[in-house]
Every structure is written in structure tokens, then in C-alpha cells.
Amino acid sequence: MRSEKEMMEIILSTAKKDERIRAVYMNGSRTNPNVPKDIYQDYDIVFVVTETDSFLADKDWIGGFGKPLIVQEPDLNDNAWGEQHDFSRRYAWLILLEDGNRLDLVIEIKEEAQKNFIGDKLTILLLDKDGFLPEIPRPTDEDYHLKKPNEAQYRACCNNFLWCLNNVAKGIARDELPYAMEMYNCVVRNDLKDMISWYIGINTGFSVSVGKMGKHFKKFLTQELYTMYAQTYSDSSYENFWAAIFIACELFRSIAPEVADYFGYTYNWQDDKNMATYLNRVKNNDFMQ
Q1: Averaged pLDDT for residues 120-133
Q2: Averaged pLDDT of the chain
Q3: What percent of the chain has pLDDT over 90?
Q4: Are 52 and 91 in contact (CB under 8 A)?
Q5: Region label for 150, one of left (φ > 0), alpha (ψ between -120 and 50) or beta (otherwise)
Q6: CATH classification at residue 197
Q7: Alpha helix (H) ranges present in 37-176?
Q8: Contacts of 70 (CB under 8 A, 6+ apart)
Q9: Do 101 and 153 belong to one domain?
Q10: Are residues 110 and 157 located together in one domain of the fold?
Q11: Would strands 21-27 and 43-49 be described as parallel, antiparallel, or unpaired?
Q12: Looking at the DSSP assignment, which residues form a beta bridge with residue 103?
């Protein structure tokens, strides 16, 4: 795998040699001073260009960064599902290279760059041939820090977590594994993720980021809580699925009241008790009798 120095050299040399590329900036985890560096970090690079058409007419030019193993063109994929983008203003390639490096490369015209360059505080300028981009402060991840929930958001999270568990239970009872799993993983566990994030927030003064999809939970949770969180994942066994559900409930009720106390909100213990009773009755087939 090529080093960061080698990758940055080829990125910048490509830009310097091509008159169509007028500026280069970088954002993402490699600009975040609070994220430990490792070999799997993407290179999130933006080339500010005079036009995009010539880059799109012959896409083989991205091979100059190394042999791609696989490439995704998210704007093109979005088009396939009816989400339209103006390729004449901006276009992206996500490139996994043979040596293991990943380059997320965007080309955009100056008008787009003048908006986007100042829109992300995790941005550093690497090259500006024309001196048209403004000075910006040192990169900070403050825009990604955890946000405090208002009371309505807190109540909605609790209600949705508990309510949607009845759908999970019914899916298991009906032997509808795909439905039950998707309801649990994409809805219920998402509410759990939000509550965990708020719990971390009240213990850190809402001054940190837990990363995309909570990837840094382990860094901020106690070993006991993180072990519980890990146990909320399940395989396809219904026995293990039920165990994961009850652990998720235990974890939620362990932290949600603390979040409520911090903000002066109220945790609905009656809803919690009622849903716990319902889940146990479904698990034990009580309603079939």
C-alpha cells in the first residue's frame, strides 16, 4: 500500500499538470484532528475544474491514481433511481485501488466550490492556482458534534423504540424473519443508537462526535454498556433474536432515564413496563392459548 505521502504526491502532481484543474481541497477523516490515523482512511479529494465534460467523456483518466479494483459513481447510480444531478457542475468517483488505498474524488466547477469549500469545517486547501478560494480556519469537527434533543424529540425516540418492538415481535411470531429483522435493525436499533448518542452527549458536554453510524461508541461507552450494545446484534436464530431484543430493552432503559433527568424530561416507565409484558407474552405464545 502506498503511503499517505505517496498518495498526496500523485494527487497533487495530477492537479498541477492538468490546466483544467484549478484548485484542490480535502475534507473527511484525514483532516479531522480528533480521528486517529490509520491505513483505511479514505482520501476525500475535490478537484475544482474549469468544466466537467471532458473528464466525463473519457473516464479512464482516473486510472492515473493506480489500478482500480472497483469504482462507484454515486451520481450515476442516483440517476438510475430517479434522483437527478447536474453532471456539468459536479461529479464523483469512489475508487478502491489495487494497493488498498481508497480515493473519493469529486470534480466540481468554481461556482460549486465557492459554496462547498466553506460549507464543511473539516476542509483544508491543498492547491489554488488562481487564488480564488477564501482563507478558512483550521479544520474542526464541531459541526459533527452530538446535538441535544428537545423534549419532543426525546419522547418521540422513546415512543418509537418501544412501539416498533411490537412489530418485531409479530414478525417473529409469524416466522417473517426478513420483516422482523429489518424492523429491528433499521428502526428499533436506530432509536437505540440515537439514545446512546444522547447518553454520550450528556457525559461529554455534547462536545464530541461519535462518527458515522455510531462507529466510535466503543470509545465513549463503559465496557459494560458497550458489551450490552454489541449483544443487541443477532443472527437468524429466533432464540438469539429474542435475547438481543431483551438486551436492547435493558440497555435502553438503563440510559434513557439518565438522559431524561439531565434535561428535566420524563421517561415513560409505564410504556416500558407494558411493552416488556407484551414481548414476553408473544415470546411465550400466550396469545395463542
Answers
A1: 95
A2: 95
A3: 92
A4: yes
A5: beta
A6: 1.20.120.330
A7: 53-57, 74-80, 110-116, 151-173
A8: 96
A9: no
A10: no
A11: antiparallel
A12: 43, 95
pLDDT at residue 261 in the model: 98
Do 151 and 284 share a domain, yes or no? yes
CATH number (domain holding residue 129): 3.30.460.10
Give which of 221, 279, 220 is closest to 251, Cα–Cα: 221
Chosen domain end from 118, 143, 168: 143
Closest CA to 215 of 197, 188, 201: 197
Per-residue pLDDT tens over the stretch 246-277: 999 999 999 999 999 999 999 999 999 999 99
Residue 136 and residue 32 share a domain: yes
Residue with cell 424473519: 177
- Our CA dihedral for 121, 263, 272, 211, rounded to 10 degrees, sits at 20
Distance, in Å, from the CA atom of 249 to the CA atom of 187, rounded to the nearest integer, reads 14
> pLDDT value at position 23?
97
Q: What is the pLDDT of residue 289?
A: 66
**What is the span of the domain harbouring residue 70?**
4-143
Same domain, 130 and 193: no
Looking at the fold, whether 133 and 186 belong to one and the same domain comes out as no
Asked which of 120, 143, 166 is the last residue of a domain, the reply is: 143
Look at the chain and report how many structural domains it folds into: 2
CB atoms within 10 A of CB 116: 17
User: Quick one: which H or E segment has residue 212?
Assistant: none
